[in-house]
Amino acid sequence: MKNYAFINIIFASIILLSSCSKDSPVPEVDQEEVSGATLSLIEVEAEEHGDHYHYHDIIGGDTTNITFSGEGFLPPVDAHVHLEVGKAYKFELKIKDFAGRESQQSFIERDDQHFAFLLGIPQQSIIAEYADMKLDSTKVKVGINGYLRVQKASESFTFRYLMRHLNPGVKSEINPTTDIFNADFAKFGGANDLDLKFQMHLVESGHDEH
């Protein structure tokens, strides 16, 4: 009888382990494992409405695409972007995951965990605002999509786009308007998902590119 009881315990254990294995959730594939990115800067028309702006596409407006690839997400050699004083530009970031699929929307859907910092820009030379939208049409501030308005000219500088993956609760400490250019981004606990750099030059109208 003891042997039969021991065998029954073994069978029960096997059935229980098999059931647990089947009920275990499939691990979520991390859509934020980035393999590359492309930043597009597209000239638009900025229409002032009191304390805010509306932006409209321009047929034939200047468009610049910068693709970052390889180890360290390096831009093309000698990548040098000119933006003109008095003009506005829409920026759009396309991100590729480990399988080469576009994954930028996953950053927007997890807006409580993400915020982009725009660094290296000379003071008062650019005004930026974010314009991200979740799949349910909720407007959020992440920095995948937005607008830049160029206020004054500058010498060439290294523009740095840094997407921060924030620890739980940290996003509430960020002011999505004033912290866009905050060089002290490290105080907002988390890790960097993307750190993209290239040369930018803010020029007066009629400036010849070089």
Question: Can you give me a brief rundown of this structure?
Answer:
The protein is mostly beta strands and 210 residues long. The protein contains 2 helices and 12 strands, in the order H-E-E-E-E-E-H-E-E-E-E-E-E-E. Strand 8 and strand 9 form a beta hairpin.
Q: Which properties best describe this structure?
A:
single chain, 210 residues, mainly beta, 6-stranded antiparallel β-sheet, 4-stranded mixed β-sheet, disordered N terminus
The low-confidence runs, each spanning 5 or more residues with pLDDT under 50, are 1-31
Number of helices: 2
Q: Given the helix and strand composition, which structural class is it?
A: mainly beta
Largest sheet: 6 strands, antiparallel
The domain count comes to 1
If you compute it from the alpha carbons, what radius of gyration comes out, rounded to the nearest whole angstrom? 24 Å
Nearest-integer average pLDDT: 85
Helix percent reads: 10-25%
The helix/strand series, from N terminus to C terminus, equals: HEEEEEHEEEEEEE
Task: Report what the structure shows.
The protein has one domain (34-203). 13% of the residues lie in helices and 42% in strands. The protein has two helices and twelve strands. The protein has helices at residues 2-23, 104-109, and strands at 34-49, 52-57, 63-68, 80-84, 88-97, 114-119, 126-130, 132-133, 139-140, 145-150, 157-166, 190-203. The strands form three sheets. Strands 1, 2, 3, 5, 7 and 10 form a six-stranded antiparallel sheet that branches. It has a four-stranded mixed sheet with strand order 4-12-11-6, with no helix packed on it. The chain is globular.
